[in-house]
Specification:
The protein is of the alpha+beta class. The chain is 44% helix and 24% strand. Strands 3, 6, 7, 8, 9, 10, 11, 12, 13 and 14 form a 10-stranded antiparallel β-sheet that branches. A two-stranded antiparallel ribbon has the order 1-2. Helix 2 runs parallel beside helix 5. The N and C termini lie far apart (138 Å).
Length: 317
């Protein structure tokens, strides 16, 4: 066999019925070359196809992300505007808080308290902002920092509001329990507060209240909300009612002809509690009225409005 025939390869094709046989001779070098070229072309086409599929998928994802990014950017711009609006409104609330504190007699929150209440570390999302591709008007770090400050401001104002509400309720309650009503609507002060000559004993002694002369049976009213602590005979004061008005105030109503309340009963300002009489050490029908604060007697005339129309309105209501 010749040398060149040894370097050749044969490719034999046999038909299905084995009648036709075709034989092709090709050198081994050419065979290896053809196979190599085929594999290179096949792999190259496969890579191109794979790259196309990957690029197609990535492009679809990029377009989706771009649409999402555009929506997020619009939302962030809208959120920034809303943050500015909320910040403006909170500034107004802070001003109203200061005004209410002045009205209620409370000290305004100092700048130190407000700074401690709303201060805090700032967010650092600078790298995220750069990667996001948002416009310069959209600063995620700034918005997150402002939101955090707004949250703390709201908490501080809620705490302040609770204090204001409690103070207001206490003020309203204390006003209702303040003895500001004249105990009888008609009558003349026949004896004032202070040292006087006792009308029956004839000696000088301190008069702990005022005497208001009025006809027997004239209605006597509670001068403020309170709790009846005593209703009965009380020595020289005759039939007497005593009321505890909380916050240190007490009132007493002596020489009554009739009592229409009992011990332990709660009364409101303007409620009828009895009628003028002359029981006890008394020379004529009148009301002995006294006011105490923390156990100390005070001049009752300083603790009611001597306005007939105003007093009548309170009693009617």
């Amino acid at each position: 066999m010749k040398k060149h025939e040894k370097d050749q390869s044969r490719i034999i094709f046999i038909s299905k019925d084995q009648r036709n046989i075709k034989e092709y001779k090709i050198s081994r070098v050419k065979l290896v070359t053809y196979i190599s070229v085929f594999l290179i072309v096949f792999l190259g086409l496969g890579k191109l196809g794979l790259d196309f599929l990957v690029d197609f998928g990535n492009n679809a994802k990029i377009k989706t992300l771009e649409r999402t990014n555009a929506v997020l950017e619009a939302r962030l711009i809208d959120m920034k505007d809303k943050i500015n609006i909320i910040d403006t409104r909170l500034t107004q609330i802070v001003d109203q808080d200061d005004e209410l504190r002045t009205v209620l007699g409370l000290e305004k929150l100092s700048s130190e308290i407000r700074n401690v209440g709303i201060g805090g570390s700032e967010y650092d999302y600078e790298s995220v902002d750069q990667i996001s591709g948002f416009e310069s008007t959209v600063n995620l770090s700034e918005q997150l920092t402002n939101l955090s400050k707004l949250e703390r401001t709201v908490k501080l104002e809620l705490s302040s509001y609770q204090q204001l509400l409690e103070t207001f309720q206490d003020k309203q309650d204390s006003i209702a329990h303040f003895p500001a009503l004249r105990p009888i609507l008609k009558g003349v002060i026949s004896s004032g507060y202070g040292v006087r000559k006792h009308p029956m004993l004839g000696v000088y002694r301190h008069h702990d209240g005022i005497d208001i002369s009025a006809d027997r049976g004239t209605p006597v009213y509670a001068t403020a909300d309170g709790l009846v602590t005593s209703a009965g005979n009380n020595g020289g004061y005759g039939k007497m009612i005593q009321i505890d008005h909380k916050y240190g105030f007490e009132t007493g109503y002596g020489h009554l002809d009739k009592m229409v309340v009992r011990r332990g009963q709660h009364v409101k300002r303007g409620d009828k509690i009895g009628e003028v009489g002359s029981t006890g050490l008394s020379t004529a029908s009148h009301l002995h009225y006294e006011v105490l604060y923390n156990g100390k007697h005070l001049n009752p005339k300083m603790y009611y409005f001597d306005d007939k129309i105003l007093n009548e309105q309170v009693v009617r209501n």
